[in-house]
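My main concern about presentation is that the manuscript never shows what a single data entry looks like. In essence, backbone conformation is discretised, so a fold becomes a row of integers matching the chain in length. An entry of this sort, consisting of the sequence and the corresponding backbone structure tokens, reads as follows:
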Amino acid sequence: MQSSEPSGQRPYDVLVIGGGIIGLVTAWRAAQRGLRTALADPEPGRGAAGVAAGMLAAVTELHHGEQTLLALNLASARRFPDFVAELQEVSGQDTGYRACGTLAVALDADDRAHLRELHTLQRQSGLESEWLTGRECRRLEPMLAPGVRGGLRVDGDHQVDPRRLAAALVTACGRAGVVVHRAAAERLSVVRDRAAGALLADGSELVADQVVLAAGSLSGRLAGVPPEVLPPVRPVKGQVLRLTVPPSYAPFLSRTVRAVVRGGEVYLVPRENGELVLGATSEELGWDTTVTAGGVYELLRDAHELVPGITELPLTETRAGLRPCSPDNAPLLGPTALPGLLLATGHHRNGVLLTPVTGDVMADVLTTGELPGPARPFTPRRFAPVPPPVRQERQELSA
């Protein structure tokens, strides 16, 4: 990738602050549209991508009240095969994309009832999922515990390796001409009530016609952003384990398996390279990224109830990361009330899934100034402060 250019150069068309998957795809798509694009991040391709499991689970992760977000998730899921094909061709790197499907299972009567409700919601939303008995679940995945009571087979929910995806996006950005400044943005530059660039930690100052704040959970902490447009994004901690399936154990699982155990969600995502990702906790602990013994224990305990053979596998990595969450758990996409400043953050658990559609949406708005129709419900302005009502003074009429 290209390094930072010396000062005195003409302004960039676009400066993207943040080099996670969302920032990278935004910069790549902007450069493809002919915009002179820069990206500021000390370690592009790192961050939440190094922790995420990469489930593309628009159907399995459907929640009540999220039908509007579902439409965006499904649109992005449909784009994923073509998106990764293009990205792999441009970068020459594999992204670990697998169209393997997902199996969500229940271990007791309460979980079975919950899955039945989810199945009803899926069908009402026009989604494809198939109810299976416990025996049918174990026929698909023989490593499942004998106590599995039933499950949902969703062939349309796939997976990708976020680390490989991020690495491919880093390469694609470089080949598209994105200029990468390997330093963190410390302050947004505002000139005449318009975003005009950023001051970086290395002392350099970048000037740009448009600035995209895509710094994940850190997006709400950038100095210089006026309070009324500062994104309401909070960090939510997730702990994830990585195990290795020895060749003698293969095939261990053929698809993503997930369940609710003791009220907590657990999932197992098998990679083609023998890696098995196990996660994830969801903890409102601010900026803490400590891997805890309790978190590791709970994940292994719950996974063991689901797939007893997991305790025989080597544990190769423990990590904790921070998901960027908005008040309604949906992304913030597009222009803010500050001219020249746009947001691409707050994706919560759907950051990897929404990568293709986010890149397209941001490229459209950066080139046309208009947010595409499907993305309009996710404008940052939905969280704008509501002005107090204007007080009407009674006028007394004289006699």
Observations:
- The longest strand covers residues 234-244.
- The CA atoms of residues 388 and 394 lie 18 Å apart.
- The chain has two domains: 12-50+163-233+327-383, 100-157+235-325.
